[in-house]
Design goal:
- The complex is a heterodimer.
- By secondary structure, chain A is of the alpha+beta class.
- Chain A has 5 helices and 5 strands; from the N terminus they run βααββαααββ.
- Chain A has a single domain, classed as 2-Layer Sandwich (Heat Shock Protein 90).
- Chain A is 37% helix and 28% strand.
- Chain A has a 5-stranded antiparallel sheet with strand order 1-2-3-5-4, with helices on one face.
- In chain A, helix 1 runs antiparallel to helix 2.
- Chain A is globular.
- Chain B starts with a helix and ends in a 9-residue tail after the last helix.
- The longest helix of chain B has 10 residues.
- The radius of gyration of chain B is 12 Å and the shape is globular.
- Chain B is 36% helix and 16% strand.
- Chain B is built from 5 helices and 5 strands.
- Chain B has one domain: 3-Layer(aba) Sandwich (Udp-n-acetylmuramoylalanyl-d-glutamate--2,6- Diaminopimelate Ligase, Chain: A, domain 1).
- By secondary structure, chain B is an alpha/beta fold.
- Classes of the chains: A alpha+beta, B alpha/beta.
- Chains A and B meet through helix 1, helix 2 and helix 5 of A and helix 2 and helix 3 of B.
Chain lengths: 137, 116
């Protein structure tokens, strides 16, 4: 099953709609709660990142019995130093984002932590693509 | 501990979730930074926060939490309450600040849980 979402870049309050919808669908399909939670959190952090840093983006979800594949694509500014961006606590988010409850530098580390496979490609000035796979054990 | 007991201990107002008051909860966490909440899955059922936007509800949703407690007497707006209703998450509001609210619940036996 394939699900596609556009994450609007101008409305922070709507970040999380895709994760909520995927969570609901996985519940209906009877996936174990811990697998659902991993997918939900990884995708939710990705949505928040796309709104904060990239002006929105695209989420493509492929759900099969064995695994859930998440592909997050944006055309934002890109990430200059991926290794640095992956460190716990490193953030380039502006202060107003911290007032919204994010920008603690845990977004990408959390996405990596909750996914079984994690790939990040980014080019400055072009955009970023994150691919995550979570296995249904 | 039940959500009803949390409401009583914190002298809190119920903003949504009458039917969830008798739900049993065993662990909680308190934070205004949602990524910190999302960083550790410990099966917490309650989130205490001073963050007054819909992302507090969404974070509780992703973590399968039962109840959210807004501290420091701040009033969430209708958008927040509407989202909580849609997601089936109980919402309380207490005048106590974060540290005191957490301390009151801890002294009555609510714990932080263990990372899975």
């Amino acid at each position: 099953m394939t699900l596609n979402f556009v994450v609007p870049g101008d409305d922070f309050t709507r970040a999380g709609e895709a994760s909520g919808a995927v969570k609901q669908k996985m519940k209906q399909l009877g996936f174990p709660s811990d697998v659902i939670r991993k997918v939900s959190i990884a995708l939710y952090e990705g949505e928040i990142n796309m709104v904060i840093h990239a002006g929105g983006g695209q989420v493509d979800v492929e759900i099969s019995q064995d695994a859930i594949d998440l592909v997050l694509t944006d055309h934002g500014p890109g990430i200059a130093d991926i290794e640095q961006a992956m460190q716990d606590g490193f953030s380039t988010a502006p202060d107003h984002v911290r007032d919204l409850g994010f920008g603690a530098g845990m977004g990408l580390p959390n996405m990596k932590k909750y996914s079984d496979e994690f790939h990040l490609e980014s080019e400055v000035g072009v955009g970023t693509t994150v691919r995550m796979r979570i296995y249904n054990h | 501990m039940t959500v009803r007991e949390i409401k009583d201990y914190l002298e809190a107002d119920l903003l949504y979730g009458e039917d969830l008051l008798d739900s049993e909860v065993h662990t909680a966490c308190g934070s205004d930074m949602m990524s910190d909440v999302l960083a550790f899955v410990k099966n917490q059922a309650v989130l205490l926060t001073g963050l007054m936007n819909p992302q507090a509800i969404r974070t509780a949703e992703m973590m399968d939490m039962t109840c959210i407690v807004f501290v420091r007497g701040k009033e969430p707006n209708e958008t927040v309450i509407d989202l909580a209703r849609e997601k089936g998450i109980c919402v309380l509001k207490t005048r106590h600040p974060m540290f005191a609210a957490c301390g009151i619940l801890y002294s009555h036996g609510l714990r932080g849980g263990h990372e899975q």
